[in-house]
Design a protein that fits this description.
- The chain is an alpha/beta fold.
- The protein is built from 19 helices and 21 strands.
- The longest helix has 18 residues.
- It is globular.
- The two termini are 44 Å apart.
- The relative contact order is 0.18.
């Protein structure tokens, strides 16, 4: 994908050199472990002693991380017991529109995935899902993009169709990355999976930049001395659009995204992303230990997971006791907790003894981003109609500083019903929508878009009621995803490394944290999967299991690739 402000701009010789390198993956930089190789190896993820086969392990949360962890534990011969307060899928939530064709769906959470998410792609392929290009701003497959700032609109198919100032901003961003973050060197090291080089670069940057905001990083660059350039960059951004809502966050969070091309070349899952955890839930793996062929997570649970967890506490014999909303009480030797971590503070009655105090501090300090979306079904992709005067598309993927911020046009083919994401917003922009109902939101959005497309009657094409979400208002989520603030690196390290429980006091073991907010790449399904696999390794290790020497797991290689440790004093 060609980003609105490209992650990197290269001349032809540089481009050819990069194309000759291996493809980029989310390989580090904090923990450069090859999860895709681990998953693909014929030896599998490991095994446990036969005496432990059938032992129960609680998995709290039925999102992607929880389902992946449960699926892999089941394959090893353990019996996962999944608890879910709402629905299987978590923030992979696909919904339909009342009274409309089932093919019309809206992605309320995750909706676009980069090819660098190679562990995610493993599971997409495993359950036979298909992907297609996602219509991000100025992506090659996006028919057209309109950038509307300060009341002035620009129509474009590529960045070269925009006024020169946008190219200036693109060049400034690339220069800023080279100047302050060794972008090309790190990109090459990640492509080549050069762990020593990755660690060398990242160790220096973590120490230098942990206290720096995204905006401060821009301001410190000689390439971004212009406020006008910084303002345009914040409103239009790179990859998926404007990034000014991320300006207060740690620059380390942003670098993780750009180094691994997480914001580039996005693809959507045909039919909706929630199919992935749902299909894994129903899948009967061919290679499975202890359980008979035909066993699935669904069959082990008689079709449905256990209800919400209401209490977690420790008991004698190194057991963790789980109480659920039905009043059922069960004890386990291991619990994998994949739900939103703040639930441990507010909605689940927890013993302080579950975690060391510094881990509780890290959970409490986790910073979450708000996010809102609103979708409407329409009769057809009318935006592809050509204006008789200009010859342009009637309507385009739209980035604007108006209330809607980002508008996405999602079609299912010519003359077939389609979907518009009228607005996708984050943080303060999301909070502005919070008091409004779905219909009230739609009215404000249509008014805002009418100022950009004065001769387009969007309303006449709408064929059903809008659907909306504000993730900060969802009781089991309280936010869209984690985003570290400056100074939070140490907290994230505590949470991510929690699966290495030999390093914990004996009375603090047995609960394993996972989920994208535990990962270094929050907000990405890849991080949810990677931490699930860490937890699987941790549970396997606790039950006396091991990996095949030819396919060492993340815990086996931990000392070689452990995240940089910053001093506490």
């Amino acid at each position: 994908m060609t980003s609105t402000v490209p992650t990197a701009v290269h001349d032809e010789q540089e481009t050819q050199a990069l194309e000759a390198l291996p493809p980029i993956t989310m390989f580090g930089p904090d923990f450069p472990y090859a999860y895709d190789d681990y998953l693909a190896h014929p030896a599998g993820l490991g095994q446990i002693p036969a005496t432990e086969h059938g032992a129960e392990v609680a998995v709290v949360g039925g999102g992607l991380s929880g389902v992946v962890a449960a699926y892999e534990l089941m394959k090893m011969g353990l019996r996962p017991v999944v608890y879910e307060a709402d629905r299987i899928g978590g923030r992979l939530r696909t919904v339909g529109f009342d009274g409309c064709d089932d093919e019309l769906t809206a992605e309320m959470g995750a909706m676009r995935f980069p090819p660098s998410s190679t562990a995610l792609q493993h599971y997409i392929d495993l359950v036979d899902l298909k992907t297609q290009p996602f219509p991000n701003p100025l992506a090659p497959e996006t028919p057209s993009t309109v950038v509307d700032l300060k009341g002035e609109s620009h129509y474009a198919r590529t960045i070269d169709d925009l006024p020169p100032v946008y190219r200036e901003v693109a060049d400034a961003w690339n220069a800023c990355l080279e100047e302050g973050a060794d972008f090309s060197d790190m990109n090459r090291a990640i492509r080549e999976r050069d762990v020593p080089r990755i660690r060398e670069i990242w160790a220096r940057l973590v120490e230098k930049l942990d206290n720096q905001t995204f905006y401060g990083f821009l301001c410190d660059s000689s390439a971004f001395t212009s406020f006008r350039h910084r303002e345009i960059f914040g409103q239009v951004g790179f990859g998926t659009g404007g990034w000014d809502t991320d300006f207060p966050n740690s620059i380390l969070e942003i670098l993780r995204v750009v180094y691994t091309e997480a914001d580039d070349h996005h693809r959507g899952i045909v039919g909706g992303s929630q199919q992935l955890p749902l299909r894994l839930w129903e899948r009967e793996p061919e290679k499975i230990v202890h359980w008979p062929q035909g066993t699935s997570l669904a069959s082990l649970h008689e079709g449905a997971p256990r209800p919400a967890v209401t209490r977690l506490h420790r008991a004698a014999g190194d057991r963790v006791v789980v109480t659920d909303a039905s009043g059922d009480i069960r004890s386990y030797r291991a619990v994998v907790f994949t739900a939103q971590s703040w639930m441990l503070l507010s909605q689940i009655d927890c013993d302080d003894s579950l975690f060391p105090i510094d881990h509780w501090t890290a959970i409490e300090r986790t910073h979450y981003m708000e996010s809102s979306k609103l979708f409407v079904p329409v009769d057809r992709p009318f935006w592809l109609d050509k204006d008789e005067v200009t010859g342009r598309d009637t309507m385009s993927m739209t980035l604007t500083d108006r209330m809607t911020r980002g508008t996405y046009l999602l079609d299912n083919g010519p003359d077939r019903p389609a979907v518009i994401c009228l607005s996708y917003t984050w943080c303060d922009d999301s909070l502005k929508w919070l008091p409004l109902s779905a219909n009230e939101r739609m009215e404000v959005m249509l008014k805002s878009l009418s100022e950009i497309y004065r001769h387009v009657d969007i309303r006449k094409h709408i064929i059903g009621s809008p659907v909306t979400v504000s993730w900060e208002n969802e009781p089991y989520f309280m936010g869209a995803f984690k985003a570290n603030l400056p100074g939070h690196y140490r907290y994230q390290r505590r949470l991510f490394t929690h699966f290495m429980q030999d390093r914990l006091p004996a009375d603090k073991r047995g609960v394993f944290l996972a989920g994208d907010d535990i990962s270094w790449t929050a907000g990405w399904a890849e991080g949810a999967i990677q931490t699930a696999l860490n937890a699987v390794w941790g549970v396997m290790h606790q039950f006396g299991g091991s990996t095949d020497p030819k396919n060492p797991g993340p815990g086996d290689l931990y000392d070689e690739i452990a995240p940089v440790e910053l001093p506490e004093d």
